Amino acid sequence: QGQKKLSCNPKKENGTHVVLCELGNPMKAGARITVDMELSVSGLEDMGDAITFHLQLRSKNSPSSTSVMVTVPVEAEAEMELRGNSLPATMVLPTSWHWVEGSQRLEDHGIKVEHVYELHNKGPGTVCGVTLSLAVPHLLGDHVLLYLLELGTEGGMNCSQHPVLNPAQV
């Protein structure tokens, strides 16, 4: 009928974490109790998509007990943000400039532009196994639009390179 706060105590039993909550003593025969519990569990990043709790109801006056398994879905939440810029931010090719076929000089392939992308985790959860795919248009019809020279990463990321990266070995 009335709401009461439970007295709960965490402890370790047989290598597992146990939370013992005292529901009331003495309890009348046939009494029905509804308990809402809020649990805070850390380190769930590698637990998969659910966590299972074993709940057991025991009476000090009876050797029997009732137990039930409760499975709670785990949903990780993280917001990713992609930032990028180009250095220089703008460029204009002279009208007299032409791409030199077969040249090994960088300036004969165009003006160097560096594109930098940063992927940030804004939280609140951690992330792993993130894949970022960047599609860079390097051809316009049969003409070279951007000559892709190199691709680099920082911060322990793996990168698979585009097959036409630096085809003239400039």
Automatic annotation (TrEMBL):
Subcellular location per the Swiss-Prot or TrEMBL entry: Membrane
Membrane-topology annotation of the record: Single-pass type I membrane protein
Record keywords, A-Z: Glycoprotein, Integrin, Membrane
Xref: SUPFAM superfamilies: Integrin domains
Residues covered by the Integrin alpha third immunoglobulin-like domain: 81-169
Pfam families assigned to the protein according to its UniProt record, in alphabetical order: Integrin_A_Ig_2 (PF20805), Integrin_A_Ig_3 (PF20806)
UniProt domain Integrin alpha second immunoglobulin-like: residue ranges: 3-74
Protein name: ITA2B protein
Phylogenetic placement of the source organism: Eukaryota, Metazoa, Chordata, Craniata, Vertebrata
